[in-house]
Specification:
With 507 residues, this protein is α+β, with helices and mostly antiparallel strands. The protein contains 12 helices and 19 strands. The protein starts with a helix and ends with a strand.
Length: 507
């Protein structure tokens, strides 16, 4: 009992001591922390304080826009090189190095005239021969080769470039935003360009500096941009998270995507990369256009975009970006009820069917989308199962026609030529769809790009559903949080309207 009393007294004394200590700390706390907090804040802010703007680049790797590696080199190149045209936010071509052009529809010939007073970074004048040399290399390249599919000849005539096509294409200038370098300098690590910045290595390191002899007149927010060497695009992501660089452009739903890194602001911009559901029209069930149309109508594109693609895409029902001027304002043509369409094709509870959807297993985003498609398309009568395979086996199965359905992605050209996908004998037409009327309407749309030709083409597309577009993916520009205001990137140029940027340095 005495022991218990002594223990209670001891505990009471300890409690009083703690209370007094607490009271003393409460009296002294304000003064103490008022002295210490600014120092700690200064130390913390110095870790993320940005006094100079920096971009990553791959040292000892070419910056030639035709052959360089996708990713950071193209971002740097956007400030060094320019094309005859640049695409705006609606994918409409705006003249840059081209001052004017003429199209002879009877001869299917374009004549492009160059802007006066444009010089390369060594002071030499831009010529049509420089542009022709780049285009000939581009036509043989993997990056730009598809743009020259319908080109029969290219030549220089005086100070102009003349390009003849094998078919009418009123939107051909939209394909000519290819950056131009001085002929003969393409073998240099940094070919000569006409852009607003120069590549320089001085005592302070490697950087981009404003080109005072640039033909343009924009007032850019930075005279000097630091360049920080990265081993690869993955290393560039680490440099962004550690604030060593401050801007990175990437596909956040790509095979190598790791998501946003660190504290960044993300600026999404529309691209021409189409995600779509492909049909093997040789399959008895999928040869029925009413079934394909009903399947397309059964897709919940909004859920796929917002949930599975994290919002880095725009839902689309047609093979043209919703950002483009000719995208139909209404939805695709309504088909019959999905279950009714299946029943009309002989698929019901008494006669169930199974289809397999093929997907490349190496892209987690695509696999998730494919799984959602299987759920959305499966009914009591139709079971859609997933088959995820390696890229090599995926491509082999497509080429051999060994599939029912597949989840595909392709980068379309900005004239919205879907012939490779849905044209008879198209290079990407793995499903074997062929329809002379579709070919005719697509050709008419490319030839004139009028409202009437667009409506006729897209109406027929919606009725026949040769493929089921799902979404056009976005390109994401990640910038250190709070650093930039008024950024308005395009897919080809993250620095579009760079003169409008407001940068908050020395934060």
């Amino acid at each position: 009992m005495a022991t218990a009393k002594r223990l209670c007294a001891l505990l009471l004394a300890l409690a009083m001591a703690l209370l007094l200590c607490s009271c003393w700390e409460e009296e002294e706390t304000d003064e103490f922390w008022n002295e210490a907090l600014p120092d700690e804040q200064a130390e913390e802010s110095s870790e993320t304080r940005i006094s100079a703007f920096a971009l990553p680049y791959l040292q000892n790797q070419t910056l030639d826009p035709v052959t360089c590696i996708d990713g950071v080199q193209q971002t740097v190149g956007a400030l060094l090189y320019e094309g005859l045209f640049a695409l705006d936010e609606h994918f409409a071509p705006q003249k840059v190095l081209c001052s004017d052009y003429v199209y002879d529809a009877q001869k299917r010939t374009y004549t492009f005239y160059l802007r006066d007073g444009v010089t390369f970074s060594d002071g030499s004048a831009l010529s049509a021969s420089d542009v022709l040399a780049v285009y000939r290399r581009a036509a043989a390249s993997e990056r730009y080769g598809a743009r020259f599919f319908a080109v029969s000849s290219m030549r220089v005539s005086g100070e102009a470039l003349v390009i003849t096509l094998t078919r009418d294409n009123s939107a051909f200038p939209a394909l000519l935003d290819i950056p131009v370098v001085k002929s003969g300098s393409e073998k240099d690590l940094v070919p000569l360009g006409t852009g607003p910045y120069l590549f320089l290595t001085d005592s302070e390191g490697t950087c981009l500096i404003q080109n005072t002899d640039w033909w343009g007149s924009a007032d850019f927010p930075l005279e000097r941009i630091l360049l920080v060497s990265a081993r690869d695009n993955g290393t560039a992501s680490y440099l962004l998270s550690s604030y060593d660089v401050h801007l990175l452009v990437s596909d956040l739903t790509g095979t190598d995507a790791s998501g946003s890194v660190g504290e960044v602001d993300v600026f999404d911009t529309d691209s021409t990369s189409l995600l779509y559901l492909g049909f093997n029209t040789r399959h008895a069930l999928l040869s029925d256009s009413s079934v394909r149309r009903a399947m397309s109508g059964a897709l919940d594109r909004a859920v796929i975009v917002s949930t599975l693609l994290s919002g880095h895409a725009r839902a689309a029902q047609f093979p043209i970006s919703p950002a483009a001027s000719f995208y139909p304002s209404g939805s695709a043509a309504a088909g019959s009820d999905y279950a009714q369409a299946l029943a009309g094709a002989g698929v019901d509870g008494s006669h169930p069917k199974t289809l397999t959807l093929l997907v490349n297993e190496e892209n987690g985003f695509k696999r998730s989308v494919a799984e959602a498609l299987c759920r959305q398309l499966s009914t009591d009568a139709l079971n859609v199962t997933l088959k995820a395979v390696s890229w090599e086996n995926y491509l082999l199965a497509l080429q051999n026609g060994s599939f029912d359905l597949y989840l595909g992605e392709t980068r379309m050209t900005a004239d919205w030529d879907a012939a490779p996908l849905i044209g008879s004998g198209g290079a990407l037409n793995y499903g074997g769809y062929a329809d002379a009327e579709m070919d005719r309407l697509l050709s008419a749309f490319l030839a004139s790009q009028t409202e009437s030709s667009a409506q006729a083409y897209f109406r027929f597309f919606a009725q026949n559903a040769p493929i089921a577009p799902i979404a056009f993916k976005s390109v994401s520009m990640q910038i250190s949080a709070g650093l930039v205001e008024n950024a308005s990137p395009t897919a080809a140029n993250p620095f579009d309207h760079f003169d409008r940027w407001t940068l908050h340095l020395d934060r």
